Amino acid sequence: MKKSTQRIIILISLIAVIALAFLFLRDILVPFLRMEMANDVDGAKELLVSKGVLGFLAVVLVEALQMVVIFIPAEFIQISSGLSYPFYIALILCDLGVCLGATIIYILVTLFRFNTDAYQKNEKRIEKLAASVKKERSTQLLLYLLFIMPLIPFGAICYYGSHRKMKFGRYLFTVATGVIPSIVTSNLMGTAARYFIGNRLPLPLLILIIVLLAGVLFTVLFLFLNKVYFRENEGTPDSIFYTAFFGVIDKLFHRAMRIHTDDTLLDGRKAPYIVLANHGSFFDMYYVKRLLENAPNPSYVVNKHFVSHPLIRKAAGKSGIVPKKLFYPDIAVPVQIMRTLRGGYPVIIFPEARLSVDGRSYPILDRSAAFYRRLKKDLVIVKIRGAYFAKPKWRKRAYRSDIYVTAERVIRSEEIAAMTDDALNALIDTSLAYDESACPVNTYRHKGMAKGLENVLYRCIDCGAVYTTRGVKNELQCSACGAVHRLNEQYLFTDEPYSIGEYYERIKQTERQELAGFCLEADVKTSVFHDKGRYRTRETGRCTLNEKGFSYRSDKTEFTVGFDALPALPFSCGEEFETYYNGDLYYFYPVENRRQVVRWALLVDLMQEIRNGKNETEIAD
Predict the structure, then answer these.
(1) Domain tally, the chain
(2) I need a surface site. Which of 188, 290, 415, 497 has the fewest CB within 10 A?
(3) Which domain holds residue 287?
């Protein structure tokens, strides 16, 4: 069937779904709910009786046609039918609609070779999920798996089953029974909502019912997948924990950003390999995952603190995630990376180890060339553009943006073997270096672009005053001298310095000039996350940073860390800075002026420049 004909069929189905849904809402659901709210039970029953077959037919057709279209969520009509009809009737109607839709799809695929763009987008995900299962499984069992997982639309699953040339009877039986758990959950949610609207169910109980229903469905899903289907994948990125996590992330972020990927250099390249990527956004792990959709599921080296909760730690372990303490020796990490590579999975590493503060790359402090040489695997250099300004670490709100993820270079294992460690480290540095402001890829028309910027640009470059800047709408203003620097639609200042990175560099230059004899002190509230287990203690103390190093003292603890053991001081803008000591992670929250945390981190970076005998400009060169 021609593409144009396929698109006409999809368009007609879409119009029919919208029209039928509108009529169902106008003539049945809305009047029915009004009567329920007015406690007119007899009137509500009479309304449903008067609509009779027409109401039933609307539910069935909407459910059927939305499967053909694929991208319209089935939950809308399932919850709506649960609102309007008794549970058993709603269940039968929705299941009939699914069967009708599955039959239409089967006919379109087997007789007319029908194949929609929406299905093709989901087909890769289904094929990858099927390929990740090491044991031979029937298509029928795979369809049951897909129906239970809340990741792929019913319509896409039916297109997939039809393309596998199943016998129609087995295909239809699988569809009719496989969708029941999801339909039951949605119908029950609608029924509970109807009782709430009719003032027969308090809101807390409604919420509890919905949570319990979701919990029951998840439990059934977990037991089925973990015990029957994915048991052999435990501890790898093919585990159910990994699949479920990225399934949820994909649902949340699939349309949040416009992600463009270019994996041309990976065509025909067989995993495993090491992926090194720049790190401008907290969501970079998802962006790189989108780039590697045609590769085996990748593992990640992640901040160990993010997976320190017992439940999350267990799930991460079962998912093949490699946890690492930031800027602290962790001998288990190389072993886990090698084990993951032996399993055939790519490993993703963000060598900067912390989010960019100003849209430019941090120096790579962990010089890992010797380790990469020992692995004898290709290194894939990935550049992410557009992510920093979409959601920088200093701004709470995310802006919808175009994100470009490109495999820019492959350093083959043979090349690595012929290079010295210094040469390889230098090549990695230059390959990952970036400046988001140098070539903007997005245009923003927001009124709060500078909000939170003072948590990075804490010092006025015009008068030198500290903590007097403030982000107001699209301007960085200084309360001491009145200087104003305005951001344009590309997140560039309209006057010198022209970028956030250049402004931050001016601050660094000023701080360099004042380093001699410097001393920062702050009273802090401290959270200590202990190395063994997730348990945490809280205390108050005082932090000091000077030319000798970093010190902390409280009633319970006292220690000093020299710059030889303090490569960097990670921080959260306007919140805290952190470091490890004796394996325990200390979070320090300044009692006064939490904007100062960025200054503590910057001064540690400057002291490391002095210690290494070079500055960032020389590193970039």
Answers:
(1) 4
(2) 415
(3) 240-432
